[in-house]
Amino acid sequence: GITSFVRDITKQKQNEIQIKKLNRIYSVLSNINQAIVRIHQKQQLLTETCRIAVDFGKIANGLDWYD
Question: Is residue 62 within 8 Å of 54, Cβ to Cβ?
Answer without folding.
Answer: yes
